[in-house]
Amino acid sequence: MYAIIAAGGRQYRVSQGDVIYVDKINKDPDTTVTFDVLMVGGDEVRVGNPVLADAKVEGKIVAQVKGEKIIIGKYKSKKNYDRVTGHRQPYTKVEITAINA
Predict the structure, then answer these.
(1) How many CB atoms are located within 10 Å of the residue 53 CB?
(2) What's the DSSP call for residue 9?
(3) Which sign does the torsion angle of CA 49, 54, 57, 15 carry?
(4) CA trace torsion 72, 77, 80, 83 (10° rounding)
(5) Which of 53, 55, 90, 91 suits a disulfide with 101, CB 3.0-4.6 Å?
(6) Three-state SS string across 18-60, please?
(7) How far apart are CA 38 and CA 65, in angstroms?
(8) Is the N-terminal amide bond of 50 cis, ω within 30° of 0?
(9) What pTM did the predictor assign?
(10) Above pLDDT 70, what percent of the chain?
(11) What's the DSSP call for residue 16?
(12) How high is the pLDDT of residue 23?
């Protein structure tokens, strides 16, 4: 059985036991989070409009992590302007514990 969930403006296809990285959720590790379900698949496929009211996906927050560094460079010729900066996107590592459909 699998489910399509929405988290942080993105959609993820998850099964029980999967580990996903979603945009940062401000909660401590070892807490439980619940996601809305857009679709459930398996023997029978059910699609929500936009979500399934009787289905929920539960996950456990494993850790707060950062993505890889992205280098941003700005340059203007003949103006003595040169800037380099970086960015690391914060993510939350979530382990899917149950699909209640």
Answers:
(1) 9
(2) T
(3) negative
(4) 0
(5) 55
(6) CEEEEECCCCCCCCEEEEEEEEEECCCCEECCCCCCCCEEEEE
(7) 26
(8) yes
(9) 0.84
(10) 100
(11) T
(12) 96
Buried/exposed code over 5-35 (b: 16+ C-beta within 10 A; e: otherwise): bebeeeebebeeeeebbbeebeeeeeeebeb
Are 24 and 92 in contact by the 8 Å Cβ rule? The answer is: yes
Q: State how far the Cα of 74 lies from the Cα of 22, in Å rounded to an integer.
A: 29
Strand partners for 40: 3, 46
Residues 12-50 have pLDDT tens digits of 999 999 999 999 999 999 999 999 999 999 888 999 999
Q: At 8, is the secondary structure helix, strand, or coil?
A: coil
Kindly state the tokens that stand for 27. Answer: 């909660």
